[in-house]
Amino acid sequence: MRAGNASLHWPLTALQAAVKPMAEQAYAEVLPSIDSTNSELMRRARLGDNRPCLLVAEEQTAGRGRQGRTWQGQRADALTFSLGLMLAPPDWSGLSLAVGVCLAEALDPQQSLGLGLKWPNDVWVDAPQAPRKLAGMLIETVWVEGDNSASRYTVIGMGINLHGPLDGALSTPAAGLREWMGEALLPPEVLQRLLAPLVDGLRLFEAQGFAPFKERFAKRDVLRGQALRLSNGQEGVGSGVDASGVLQVDTAQGRVAVSSDEVSVRLAVGAA
């Protein structure tokens, strides 16, 4: 069942209240269609608008993922939004992992759905035996002119499938939340469930960095103990992440530290 024509009722008052802890001037906005919520908030920031903002799009015409990938999702069959805010954490390392923890815990607090986290920025289901991608994120930052602090305007974009797109060209098959939460599930309900935990998690990350999230990530780490192949051809076994959220891979040549801007990771063929 596709819900593209469903009427979407966004609880703006509740969404505004959920983002207010970020700053008094924080606001929420819902657009029927835009190229990319991340692109729009980055444009606004470069023009001087660095207010904390939750920007939701019922439809994205040019949604973006990591490493230039596109994000697919029809209206009402996916939740697409970006959260923009000034952040000044003690260490930026591990931000995408912390966001993933907040998302997975909000949607699957008891791990009964089997939501796992695939380093560095995806939520997977049925991993590692038959992994399917449920959600992904894209984090971008921009320096604010005249700001002499260590803060940056940070835009955290999320795409969450309610009904997985049927595209055989996807490197990882897609999953959708309606498989577990029912065909009546719509994007506003999902957003209400995860927004407040996400805001709280970002405030915690700003205060303490990745440390409070390390063990929580480990509980959902789908790459730990799995045979991996890195995009540079190296192979090894996932050994979790370090205190900064850097992936550790044990290879025949020794342990390799993998940072998010160096390589992509794929489960090796025949991995258990």
What do these coordinates show?
The chain is α+β, with helices and mostly antiparallel strands. The chain has two domains: 207 residues, Bira Bifunctional Protein, Domain 2 (BirA Bifunctional Protein, domain 2, 2-Layer Sandwich), CATH 3.30.930.10; 41 residues, SH3 type barrels (Roll). Helices cover 23% and strands 26% of the residues. Strand 1, helix 2 and strand 2 form a beta-alpha-beta unit. Helix 1 runs parallel beside helix 5. The mean pLDDT is 89.
Shape: globular
> What is the CATH class of the largest domain?
Alpha Beta
How many angstroms does the end-to-end distance come to?
Answer: 33 Å
Mean pLDDT: 89
Strand order of the largest sheet: 1-2-3-7-6-5-4
Largest sheet: 7 strands, mixed
Oligomer: single chain
Q: Please work out how many helical segments DSSP would assign.
A: 6
Question: In short, what is this structure?
Answer:
With 272 residues, the protein is α+β, with helices and mostly antiparallel strands. It contains 6 helices and 12 strands.
